[in-house]
Design goal:
The protein is of the alpha+beta class. 16% of the residues lie in helices and 40% in strands.
Length: 322
């Protein structure tokens, strides 16, 4: 009896040690997420270090964005324009800002290309801010050019880090409000990041790779793939941005609107445009939501450091979807 009791005590102590060791390991690998609320923005920190800010000022922005976005070592991987001027950066497509989720041609409203509003995607409320799970939940409304809400967006963003990569897993559910909503097929969408000048493929220092094994924007644009990554060098160090498309996402696997000038986007709704761009028979998708109907879009974006092979990324993807 005494021996059994001693074993139980030793086991309990060992479990406490393992738990403490795990917590210490998490601290060392930078897994502690925290949120800091400010005016019209919420900063996301990893072990006290900046990762990104959720910005939602509806007096200046046409849509909420995550900006800027940093790697675990503090390297900014997003273009700074139009928020800040950086010497050598391009000023094209000012609507490409940080990480964003939007779409053009929604009931003939252009939510993608606009730099003025309406139309506009407006933050309504923050529904969840849980540092323990790294979860930030929000509700938005898509307001048309007549300033009428046509879509409600319920968004969940789960932030995490493992010491070599900062991640955000984003799930967006769009629900039609009082009227039918039609998303006409267009290349201008949908889940996107505008990368830093040094990371764009056109700079000659980076290259896209898809889950199909295709390389370069030229070969990946308008194709379907489960994931795509973009790797590049800065100061002799390799950085990568990978976007995973979850199988529960609408029209999976997504098409890719990947450009060598710095736009890196997943667009599941531009089907016929992309098929035509690949000399295939175009079959319009034209997602249509009747009042009360919903569609869900689910992507994970990973900012990592160091080179990753296709096999490594595939293993990461399989773990993600499980």
């Amino acid at each position: 009896m005494k021996k059994a009791l001693l074993v139980m005590v030793l086991f309990s102590v060992s479990m406490m040690f393992v738990a403490c060791s795990t917590q210490e390991a998490q601290k060392k690998t930078g897994r502690a997420i925290s949120f800091v609320e400010g005016e019209n923005q919420i900063d996301v920190l990893v072990d006290g270090n900046f990762f990104t800010s959720y910005k939602y000022d509806k007096t200046t922005l046409t849509k909420p964005v995550l900006f800027p976005v940093e790697s675990v070592s503090g390297t900014i991987v997003t273009r700074m324009y139009p928020f800040e001027e950086v010497e050598g950066e391009s000023h094209d497509h000012p609507h490409h800002t940080g990480i964003f989720f939007t779409y053009d041609e929604v009931n003939e409203n252009g939510f993608w290309n606009n730099t003025t509003f309406p139309p506009q995607i407006q933050h309504l409320e923050t529904t969840k801010m849980d540092a323990k799970t790294g979860t930030l939940g929000t509700v938005m409304q898509w307001v048309d050019k007549d300033e009428k809400p046509i879509l409600k967006e319920d968004r969940t963003m789960v932030f995490s880090s493992n010491g070599t990569a900062n991640c955000v897993d984003m799930k967006m559910t769009l629900t039609a409000q009082d009227d039918k909503v039609v998303f006409n097929d267009t290349k201008e969408g949908m889940f996107a990041i505008r990368v830093a000048h040094w990371l764009k493929e056109k700079s000659g220092n980076s290259e896209y790779l898809s889950s199909n094994g295709d390389r370069t924007a030229k070969n990946i644009w308008a194709t379907r793939a489960k994931w795509v990554t973009l790797e590049g060098k800065k100061d002799n160090k390799v950085y990568g941005i990978a976007i995973f498309n979850h199988p529960e996402s609408n029209n999976y696997p997504t098409y890719w609107h990947a450009r060598d000038y710095g736009l890196f986007a997943a667009n599941p709704l531009g089907q016929s445009v992309f098929q035509k761009g690949r000399d295939q028979e175009p079959v319009p998708y034209n997602l249509t939501l009747e009042p009360g109907q919903s569609a869900t879009f689910h992507f994970k974006l990973i900012v990592y450091e160091g080179t990753k092979t296709q096999e490594e990324l595939e293993a990461m993807y399989e773990k993600y979807i499980q």
